Amino acid sequence: MTTISKISSINNSQSVVLLCEKTSNLDNYGLSKQETEFLKREINEREKKYVCFNQLNRYVFVQLIDAKPEKYKTLEGLRKAASGIHNMLVQLKAEAITVIDVAGNAPETIAFTEGLALSNYQFLKYKKDKEKEKFSLKSISVYGKGINPKHVEELQILCDAVNISRTLVNEPPNFLTAIQLSKEFQKMGKEAGFNVEVFNKSKINSLKMGGLLAVNLGSIDPPTFTIMEYKPSKPTNKKPVVLVGKGVVYDTGGLSLKPTPNSMDMMKCDMAGAATVAGAIYAIAKAKLPVHVIALVPATDNRPGGNAYVPGDVITMYNGLTVEMLNADAEGRMILADALAYAQKYDPMLVMDFATLTGAAIAAVGMSGIVTMGTADERTKNKLKASGDNTFERLAEMPFWDDYDELIKSDIADMKNIGGPYAGAITAGKFLGRYVNYPWMHFDIAGPAFLTAKDAYRPKGGTGVGIRMLYDYFRNNF
Ligand code: BES
Ligand code: MN
Ligand code: ZN
């Protein structure tokens, strides 16, 4: 992984990015008079926002901060600019880069560095010739009087968490079974300092988690239910915040089989919600935020094997409610419902679930944001939305009107697991809403969790979406 560190003197033989404003003074960075003049012409006359040239032993990149009326857009512009410079660094085979805050723009410098570090992610585990494909860049140094070294350490932790989560999503289903996923969580817990408990199939049986067990019926591999907990010595919250992540390690659609090739081949991403909540608790624990958090992950694959549940089955869930299961491909809500009902035992102040839950969420906002809905108060919602903006993991809130409750009524059970042809993301949320008795938000990350093409600092494949938004929320509000 990329090392990010604050430095207190600039090494003039290492390539640099001078992050500055139009009028910034660029003396004292080892540039010749001609170079400085060249830069002035490029910036002032030719109105360039980005200039690059090479000296004998290093490359010099000059990146102007293009201030937008809304600061979060400026920051996102810089993350994206960083991904462009990352492409150059890789082509140039640079191993190290120094990012210099020329004009006292600490948050902008951190955002730029974040863009570089997040761009430097690769998943090469299964390549024979890893070294050949490996990006050259290994370390990023940050220089600037106004840069708080704590913020640089924090950025390292956060980027590591995002990249671990991306890797979990990218791992193929023949490696990442539900059991393997729980082992990965245990490794993360050891590394970051949080507690991990894994329920195996017989424990899940004895707890009567009917939704998780039903989805698992068509599978040869057993389900798992993982509880991760981080409790600092003096948490600022009396009641815990509980995160819940959908851990469907592969979604074939079960007996309501998905058509292939277009809709099944990405379905290893169906545990992205689990990767998000594990990544979030990893970052929170490693950064020792003063917040008591618990993360729950119900995990299984969804397959049409032997005893698979069939459309028409009635399932009794963990909390005793019954579900007429009419589509085996609406499996996410079945396993999440059990986890949400289980969360009641913690008397939580807030529960947030993350799930690649519906194609309808993708239809609504594409890859650009997270579809959200829930019962938390407006203040909490606004704080979460602010964190979504800060990190550009933006939240699009759906209506949660009573009308939609009608759509999941069943003739013979307490509810059915599908709604009508419209508002599919909302009816899925409404289903989950039947299992909560606490302030709750649901985040449908089906769009941004997994990309079929690289988008600036978001790689092709797993993106780790949600972790940065959550971390920002916990850091600023607890
Ligand atoms: N895992 C899928 C949702 C999904 C689709 C995630 C595309 C990522 C990309 C989920 O389990 C699913 O199949 N949902 C169905 C629900 C329907 C049957 C009510 C859907 O959205 O089509
Ligand atoms: Mn499905
Ligand atoms: Zn699914």
Short précis:
This protein has 478 residues and is an alpha/beta fold. The protein is built from 14 helices and 20 strands. The protein is elongated and about 80 Å long.
Task: Describe this structure as you would to a colleague.
The protein is α/β, with parallel strands linked by helices and 478 residues long. The chain folds into two domains: 3-144, Leucine Aminopeptidase, subunit E, domain 1 (3-Layer(aba) Sandwich); 158-477, 3-Layer(aba) Sandwich (Aminopeptidase). Helices cover 36% and strands 20% of the residues. The protein has 14 helices and 20 strands. It has helices at residues 33-45, 71-91, 106-119, 130-133, 149-170, 178-192, 201-207, 210-216, 272-286, 332-343, 359-365, 378-390, 424-433, 467-477; strands spanning 3-6, 16-20, 50-54, 59-64, 96-101, 139-143, 195-199, 224-230, 241-245, 247-251, 293-302, 313-316, 322-325, 350-355, 370-374, 395-397, 415-416, 440-444, 450-451, 461-462. The strands form four sheets. Strands 7, 8, 9, 10, 11, 14, 15, 16 and 18 form a nine-stranded mixed β-sheet that branches. The chain has a six-stranded mixed β-sheet with strand order 1-6-5-2-4-3, sandwiched between helices. Helix 10 (332-343) packs parallel to helix 13 (424-433). The protein is elongated and about 80 Å long. Bound molecules: ligand BES, manganese (II) ion and zinc ion. Ligand BES binds next to helix 11. Zinc ion binds at residues 248, 251, 270, 331-332.
